[in-house]
Amino acid sequence: MLIAHGVCYEDYKRKLNVRMEVEKRRELDYMKCKRLIADFDGRIHC
Q: What whole-number distance in Å separates Cα of residue 46 and Cα of residue 24?
């Protein structure tokens, strides 16, 4: 947690605002990865 998001797990667990920011970043990373995979998948099949 600390290396990936710059927040220790105790702060993540205790502070709602920290947790929300981390989860927003995780969601953005997830969406970027999905778009990247879709882009690669489209290039492979064409």
A: 33
The number of distinct structural domains making up the chain is: 1
Q: With CA atoms as reference, report the closest residue to 22 among 35, 32, 8.
A: 8
Distance in angstroms (rounded) separating the CA atoms of residues 21 and 12: 10
Alpha-carbon distance of 18 to 14, in angstroms, equals 8
- How does pLDDT run along the chain (46 residues), one tens digit per residue? 889 889 999 999 999 999 999 999 999 999 999 999 998 887 776 5
Look up the domain containing 33 and give its range. Answer: 2-45
